[in-house]
Each structure stands twice: as structure tokens, then as C-alpha cells.
Design brief:
- Keywords: ATP-binding, Coiled coil, Cytoplasm, Nucleotide-binding, Nucleus, Proteasome.
- InterPro entries: 26S_Proteasome_ATPase, AAA+_ATPase, AAA_lid_3, ATPase_AAA_core, ATPase_AAA_CS, NA-bd_OB-fold, P-loop_NTPase, Prot_ATP_ID_OB_2nd.
- This is AAA+ ATPase domain-containing protein.
- The protein is an alpha/beta fold and 540 residues long.
- Helices cover 43% and strands 13% of the residues.
- It has 19 helices and twelve strands.
- α18 (491-507) packs across α19.
- The longest helix is centred in the first third of the chain and has 49 residues, at 154-202.
- The chain is elongated and about 140 Å long.
- The chain starts with a strand and ends in an 11-residue tail after the last helix.
Length: 540
């Protein structure tokens, strides 16, 4: 720190005073004697009158409060030689009070001096210059009454409390403001979504077309739904690798640009077939058909679950199976059990619903049905009453017969076009196998024919126990006697026996079925069976 100080030179005979000079030394050397000889300093310009008066007032104030300056050893130092331009200031109380009143407040922001600083001629620092470091702790100790006054000032404590409360309140408002901004952001997002939806409702529709051919990476030949063909471009977001021949696309109303790909067109009748639910049917709920279940699972379930077995052996898996037998023996139930156990897509087709009066519509429906099955693999197609479209072909017939024959030929074409390891299997069922066309029954189309015959005595006993599990019985029921009385019954007849027994119990105002009810139900069903004709089924 640069200070004004006196430089002394010690001699044996005494001390000789020299002139003032400016030295640079830390504060710890203040008040100590420096034995050096220095040349007189260069003349400095006189300070401004206002600054000179402030220095003189501060010098008088510090000397009046602290007394004369002392060295570090305790001896009094001689006063500094006053500047020729300075004037004496009285040390009377009136002058001191006047100095405090006029100069303490503005000067306190400018300088802080001690008697030793005055003795060494320290220059005061103005507020516009570089600030001094914080005051050391000895200043607070020098004025204990000032610290006590600050700690016990009620106005200061009240001001601090008010500041703290306002600060907490400000932080609370900042948190609320942050939450409101987040809410505004969410509402703005909802507003944008709603605006987009409104624009979508107000936007112009698009034309449905079909891709015919790809010319290059950017141009395609498209056939519009109205009939004409166009060479159009494609939107950049559309995957051009998927735009193959026959793909349905949406075209812009103005530029006819391909905007998006559309799913394959599905006939409503085929879509309704896919909604058919096979239900929760298990093979354990089918009685008397253990051998038929094994053969069916070998043809349908094994190729879908373990196709590598056929590749390892080197054989081709069967494409489909034909279930034939008397009505009510469980052909449809077997197909439902297979679809339910595999958890695959299931298409239940009623063959008579395929036949249409318009030429070519039945064949188109067959194509769409197999196309839908290939797109939603694994899939099982169950065609019940296949004799409606698969009958023998004759050279003579009406136009309706010729339409059925065209439908059969389309079905044969689809069966030949199957992939051997594909995930699409077909199950056909009929109770008139003798009327089917030989081309449909040949190997390579329907590879396995399974006869679903009437159940024997053991099978009827299993069926009776299955259907009687959920009914309330009164005592033990002798099912063996009931089975002996139900010779020639199929599975549907045995289920009807349990239903009739429950009706007899309801007529007698009872909540349970007894043995007598079952006996009455069997006799009633035997009488109704006499009205049914018998069909002789030969193995295919």
C-alpha cells in the first residue's frame, strides 16, 4: 500500500530528520523505523480544495477522538509537518461537532483512518477509486458501543423480519407462477391438438386408388377409383418399398400425389367371418373321439407349432383335413377346439353363403377369403357344409350350377396355391361325403379324411358325464343304465337327454335331477329318434 511516511536515519549522536518520500510496505510495518536514505520525491500537484478540506477535517476528527499517534512500542510520534497550503482547524467541541455533522456522513463512504494512518500521512481513497478490503475485526472492537447499538436496534430487527417475510412470500409467488406456466403450456398443447382435429374435419377428402406399376423411384402409375389412370408422385414420408402392384393408396384431391397407404380391401362378408369367436373349448370337453382328436392335431396343430419336424424328416405337411360323419357327432366342435387351443385367427365359412347370383362374385369372395387368411397368419379356415359348393360336376345343368362349378374351381386353385409350410390350414366338414367332387378329395388338397362316427357305449358314458357336470343331481345317478338305453344316440342327443331331465325336474317343482328324470328323458329321445332317417356312410 502506498503511504506517506517519514524516513529516519539512526546515528550514535542522535536522529536526523530527512524529507518525506513514498514507500510501499505492508501494514505490519506501520509505525516502525526504516533505516534508508531516499531522494526527495517529485512534486505532486496540489489536491483540489474540496478534497483538501475533507482531509483536514478527518485529520482533526481522528486526533480528537483517538489522541496523538503512537508507534508500535508505545512512544509518541512527532506530528507530521503540515502542508504549506493547509490551515489549522480548532479542536474545540463546537468545531468537532461541526466537523462530524458536515463531513462524517460523506467522508465515511470515502475513507477509514486511524491515528497511525494520519501520522504516516496516508492518503484517503475516494469511492470512485478501487475499494479498500473489508475492515479488520479490531475496528469493531474499537467501537463496542456501535456493535451493541446495531444488535439491539428494534427498527433494524423489524426491517429484517419484514424482509424475510417478503422474501418467503416472493418465493411462494414464484412457485405459483411456475405452476401456472406449466398449466398454460399443457393448455396450449391441448389447444393445438384440438385445432388440428378441427382442421382435419374441415380438410378436403382424398381419392382412393390402386398402384399398377412403379416407373422409377419417384413416379408411379395409379388407377383411381373413378377409372382413369395417372402418373403421380409420392409423399416423402411414405415407404416406397411397400408400394407394390395392387396396393391401395390415398391420393390428394388436387395434385393426385400418393399421401398414405391403405389396408387391403376386405369384403364385409369375409370380415364378419373373422369375427366368429371359437370360444373356450378344450379337447377335454369332447368325449368319445380320442382317436379322431389325435389325427386332427397331427394334421393341423403339429405343422403350426413344430414345422421344423417336417423339414428334418423331409416330408411336406398336410394342407387340410375333411371331417365327415352323421350330424351331431361333433365335427364343428372339433374345429372350434383346435382353433381355441392354438389361439389362432379363425374364419368360419358357411359354404351356402358364398354362392351369389352374380357371375364371378362367389369366386371373388373365395379369393378374398384366402387372401385375408394369408395376411393374418396363423389362421384356420373352417368351411362347414362343403357339399354346398363342392358337389360333383355334371356336363348338363343350369346357369346356377355353372356358377357353383366356377366357385369350386376357384377353391381348387386356392388349395393348390398354398405354401406347404404356410401358417394357413383348412378344415372342411360335411355329412354327405358321397356327393363331393373327386378333384376336391384327392391327395394334395385334402390330405386326410377323418370319419366322425356315432359314439360307442364307452363314448356315450364319457359324453353323459361331461354334460352332467354342471347340473344339480339328487343322489347318485346310474349313468351305465342310461347309456344302455341310449343306443344309436349321438353327442347332440345325449346333451338333449340332460336338458329333458332338467325340464322334468322343473315340472315337478324340484331343484335337482334324480334317476327317474334321466330315464324319462332317454325314453322320450328314443321315440323322437324313430322319425330320423338313417344314412349309410362309407369310408373315403
Amino acid at each position: 500500500m502506498a503511504v506517506w511516511c517519514r524516513v529516519w536515519e539512526g546515528r550514535r549522536t542522535g536522529l536526523a530528520q530527512y524529507t518525506f518520500c513514498v514507500v510501499t510496505a505492508p501494514a505490519t510495518f506501520r509505525g516502525t523505523k526504516k533505516y534508508c536514505r531516499a531522494p526527495p520525491p517529485a512534486p505532486t500537484p496540489a489536491p483540489a480544495p474540496a478534497l483538501r478540506r475533507q482531509r483536514q477535517a478527518v485529520t482533526s476528527l481522528v486526533l480528537a477522538v483517538h489522541g496523538p499517534p503512537q508507534s508500535s512500542s508505545g512512544e509518541k510520534l512527532p506530528p507530521a509537518t503540515p502542508s504549506p497550503t493547509s490551515t489549522s482547524i480548532s479542536r474545540s467541541p463546537i468545531c468537532l461537532a461541526s466537523s462530524v455533522r458536515n463531513f462524517l456522513l460523506p467522508v465515511s463512504n470515502l475513507i477509514r483512518l486511524t491515528p497511525n494512518d494520519i501520522a504516516f500521512g496516508a492518503r484517503p481513497r475516494l469511492s470512485g477509486r478501487r475499494p479498500r478490503p473489508p475492515s479488520p475485526p479490531h475496528h469493531t472492537a474499537s467501537y463496542p458501543h456501535h456493535a451493541a447499538t446495531m444488535s439491539s436496534d428494534p427498527e433494524r430487527e423489524h426491517a429484517l423480519d419484514g424482509y424475510k417475510s417478503k422474501l418467503l412470500e416472493s418465493r411462494e409467488w414464484e412457485a405459483k407462477l411456475k405452476n401456472l406456466r406449466l398449466e398454460i403450456k399443457g393448455l396450449q398443447h391441448d389447444f393445438d391438438v384440438s385445432e388440428d382435429n378441427i382442421k382435419a374435419l374441415q380438410s378436403v377428402g382424398q381419392i382412393i386408388g390402386e398402384v399398377l406399376k412403379q416407373l422409377d423411384e419417384e413416379r408411379f402409375i395409379v388407377k383411381a377409383s373413378s377409372g382413369p389412370r395417372y402418373v403421380v408422385g409420392c409423399r416423402s414420408k411414405v415407404d416406397k418399398a411397400k408400394l407394390k402392384q395392387g396396393t391401395r393408396v390415398a391420393l390428394d384431391m388436387t395434385t393426385l400425389t400418393i399421401m398414405r397407404m391403405l389396408p387391403r380391401e376386405v369384403d364385409p362378408l369375409v370380415y364378419n367371418m373373422s369375427l366368429e369367436d371359437p370360444g373356450q373349448v378344450s379337447f377335454g370337453g369332447i368325449g368319445g373321439l380320442n382317436e379322431q382328436i389325435r389325427e386332427l392335431r397331427e394334421v393341423i396343430e403339429l405343422p403350426l407349432k413344430n414345422p421344423e419336424l417336417f423339414l428334418r424328416v423331409g416330408i411336406k405337411p398336410p394342407k387340410g383335413v375333411l371331417l365327415y360323419g352323421p350330424p351331431g357327432t361333433g365335427k364343428t366342435l372339433l374345429a372350434r377346439a383346435v382353433a381355441s387351443s392354438l389361439e389362432t385367427n379363425f374364419l368360419k365359412v358357411v359354404s351356402s353363403a358364398i354362392v351369389d347370383k352374380y357371375i364371378g362374385e362367389s369366386a371373388r369372395l373365395i379369393r378374398e377369403m384366402f387372401g385375408y387368411a394369408k395376411e393374418h397368419e396363423p389362421c384356420i379356415i373352417f368351411m362347414d357344409e362343403i357339399d354346398a359348393i363342392g358337389g360333383r360336376r355334371f356336363s348338363e345343368g343350369t346357369s346356377a350350377d355353372r356358377e357353383i362349378q366356377r366357385t369350386l374351381m376357384e377353391l381348387l386353385n386356392q388349395l393348390d396355391g398354398f405354401d406347404y409350410l404356410g401358417q394357413t390350414k383348412i378344415i372342411m366338414a360335411t355329412n354327405r361325403p358321397d356327393t363331393l367332387d373327386p378333384a376336391l378329395l384327392r391327395a394334395g388338397r385334402l390330405d386326410r379324411k377323418i370319419e366322425i362316427s356315432l359314439p360307442n357305449e364307452v363314448g356315450r358314458l364319457e359324453i353323459m358325464k361331461i354334460h352332467s357336470q354342471s347340473v344339480v343331481t339328487d343322489g347318485e345317478i346310474d349313468f351305465e343304465s342310461i347309456v344302455k338305453m341310449s343306443d344309436g344316440f349321438n353327442g347332440a342327443d345325449l346333451r338333449n337327454v340332460v336338458t329333458e331331465a332338467g325340464l322334468f325336474a322343473i315340472k315337478d317343482y324340484r331343484d335337482s335331477i334324480n334317476q327317474d328324470d334321466f330315464n324319462k328323458a332317454v325314453r322320450k329321445m328314443a321315440e323322437s329318434k324313430k322319425l330320423e332317417g338313417k344314412l349309410d356312410y362309407q369310408k373315403l
